[in-house]
Amino acid sequence: MSVPIRVLIxxxxxxxxxxxxxxxxxxxxxxDWRRVDTESEYNAHLGxxxxxxxxxxxxxxxxxxxxxxxxxxxxxxxxxxxxSGAIGEDVAVAMMRQGASDYLLKDRLARLGPAVRHALSExxxxxxxxxxxxxxxxxxxxxxxxxxxxxALAYIKDEDGRILYMNNTCEQIWGxxxxxxxxxxxxxxxxxxxxxxxxxSDVYVLEKGEPSRMxxxxxxxxxxxxxxxxxxxxxxxxxxxxxxxxxxxxxxxQILAERALAKALAAKEVLLKEVHHRVKNNLQVISxxxxxxxxxxxDPIAHQALEESQKRVQSMAMIHEKLTRDGEGDxxxxxxxxxxxxxxxxxxxxxxSDPKALRFExxxxxxxxxxxxxxGLILNELMTxxxxxxxxxxxxxxxxxxxxxxxEGLVTLTVADDGPxxxxxxxxRKSPSLGLRIVDILSRQLDGTVEQTTGKGTTFSLTFPQLxxxxxxxxxxxxxxxxxxxxxxxxxx
Length: 493
Fold this sequence. Notes:
The chain has 493 residues and is α/β, with parallel strands linked by helices. Helices cover 46% and strands 24% of the residues.
């Protein structure tokens, strides 16, 4: 297949121009050609524009030397091949130095096809190289513009710790001119102890081949302290040379805000513990008053009613006591509370019973105060009923207290006994018992449900949704500490 090509022929002899066109066609080119022999015609046709110029070296009105000079003046990159009847080697070399792509004699036009292909190939290579250079230059401009407008400090060091690159953010963060940082080692910028510490961090990254993260306190010349979150990472260039890259972000405002928040939270914890302590004391006073009143009563029914009310008050006081001692704000682990309350009730009703008669299957479940108090009162009522009515003195009798939480966040509290069970057709929700009425009311307060089953013994199960915003997710101590080592850095003097 012939290759289309536009050819401008600078030649004063038409027959020679025809020979050149013939040779191009023979070399699988399809030339669209123009012949000129004056400077004005030549200039006019340069705007055509031609893909190739074939020029006789010496003509009366325009020679090849002048034609090449015009191309240079107009900054045009068009392959230029000198085709002459007679030309010395020194002249040919001079033309090549001036910018000609090639030269050949008219009696050797068989070389014209290969010479044209070579000239066009070189032009394409020049264009591709120029495009690549422009793309690279544009990329460099984008990179430096991006880096120098970034609020993050970025740098590259070699294996010796010498700074090869740093964006000018150092001038805003450190107040140190960029020119004073480039090409410097840490020991040339920082005091000896700080330089040694920074160098150790770089060496660690190089030796481990892993990135690192730490917070660094930067002491500036003006006495101001910056808190920098710094990331270091190793990387290599095309030649395999190892480097350390680093990015540091000023997180001073966040650190100060976190410290202020931690201080406020600590003050809140102290205040909450004091509140729980006072509420516990007040509940204990109420419990003591009920105990004193109980002792003065002779009516056994009234005596039992006050005694049960005293236990309800004590169950609430126990929650506030745990929050005062080992709770976290308004949350507590209900597992410990459920076990303590159940044991206290068990021994108050069964003073001579086998401790093995009380069994637990409890998972750690964190509840906030608004859920812990009604749940504790419900546990108090269910345990009391089991202890009072499930044949408390029968040999081998057992009470099971279980606590768990499903993946969906549904908490289930169960009290089961192996006593004689409830009477057939008994509807606990219609019972006149104050304790069961309390269970019904408080379960609805928890948006929960209570299920009762009877067979060999009686089982009551309370199910309610754990508050999403207060689910307790402990973070391992190692995870809390990893990646947050702190280094003190002083600014260059």
